[in-house]
Design brief:
This protein is mainly α. The chain contains 13 helices and no strands. Helix 1 crosses helix 4. The longest helix is centred in the last third of the chain and has 47 residues. The chain is extended.
């Protein structure tokens, strides 16, 4: 009985099988609750509203934290039945431990931890109130685009770290150089290398607030060189993410194309196969139009499929 309840909950959480409809409804409820929480936290920062509706905000936070906590514990409990662990030889305890260190589980924990600390601590921790806004990252679970971006960052972590390391080196060089050239003329702005780092950061990111600028000729020349270099340096992480993001999209389209080609080998897609394709489309985050375009390309590439109607699947004379 317990195992059946756990499996049913896992189906709801992953919106699969007979519980797919309930899973979509549950996801919609949680998304609405998350948006309501973010709105409540923002409105609570207004002193007049916080004073007037203190009781409402308190009760709403209590109910929200209770729901998110129950959801978190339930997901940990049902994590042994997740699709990713379907063929895993790990024990249930190790599966749960592996789930606990997954990005989505950490995000779920972050969503409830500040509020739990606020209720436990005997004093008001204002920074923990602000940290409750991190609850919005729970939407990552329901956004295929955000999941794709997280996958991109995860796969390109080493490249991004290398790019940020180079930027850090250039930051130190820029701050040190402008300190040597300008600290005698502007000791209030370039009196030390740490103080000069503000100018270096603003220059390297090409923001250019203009509150701290070199005034000597050599300092201006050095600042111009750093500005030119920064244009290429800032573009490196952007280019890495953009290239990897496009590659992830191509992988997903290729996965759908391979599945469509496999199911269309007999020249027709039956109802169970259409359901399977639709589930894959949702899992990959592809739109209906994009999936239809991929299927049309598969039909054009497969000689056998040209003899069947793409709408009804009947043989064309």
């Amino acid at each position: 009985m317990t195992e059946k309840i756990r499996t049913t909950l896992a189906d709801v959480f992953e919106a699969r099988g007979k519980s797919k409809r309930y899973g979509y409804a549950f996801d919609a409820f949680l998304m609405t609750l998350i948006f309501a929480n973010v709105l409540a936290i923002v409105m609570e920062s207004v002193p007049s509203m916080a004073h007037k509706h203190t009781q409402f905000f308190t009760y709403f936070e209590l109910v929200s934290v209770l729901i998110f906590t129950v959801e978190y514990l339930a997901r940990v409990w049902t994590s042994v039945d997740l699709n990713r662990f379907a063929d895993s030889p790990l024990s249930p305890t190790k599966r749960r431990l592996r789930y606990l260190v997954s990005p989505m589980a950490i995000i779920d924990l972050i969503a409830i931890l500040p509020s739990l600390l606020m209720f436990i601590a005997p004093f008001d921790l204002r920074f923990l109130r602000v940290l409750r806004l991190l609850r919005i990252f729970k939407l990552t679970r329901y956004s295929r685009a955000m999941q794709l971006m997280l996958t991109t960052i995860q796969e390109e972590a080493s490249s991004l770290l290398a790019a940020f390391f180079i930027m850090t080196v250039i930051l130190i060089i820029a701050a040190s150089g402008i300190y040597l050239l300008e600290h005698d003329v502007q000791p209030d702005k370039f009196g030390s290398i740490p103080a000069a780092m503000w100018w270096a950061i603003i220059t390297l990111t090409t923001v250019g607030y203009g509150d701290t600028v070199p005034v000597t000729l050599v300092g201006k020349i050095f600042g111009g060189i750093i500005t030119i270099l920064s244009m290429g340096m800032v573009a490196i992480p952007t280019g890495i993410l953009a290239s990897s993001f496009s590659e992830q999209l191509r992988k997903r389209r290729r996965t759908y194309s391979e599945m469509a080609h496999q199911l269309m080998e007999d020249g027709i897609i039956c109802h169970p196969e259409r359901i399977k394709l639709n589930e894959l489309r949702l899992e990959l985050g592809l739109s209906v139009q994009e999936a239809a375009h991929i299927e049309e390309q598969v039909r054009e590439q497969h000689p056998l499929l040209k003899r069947f109607c793409p709408q009804c699947g009947h043989h064309l004379e």
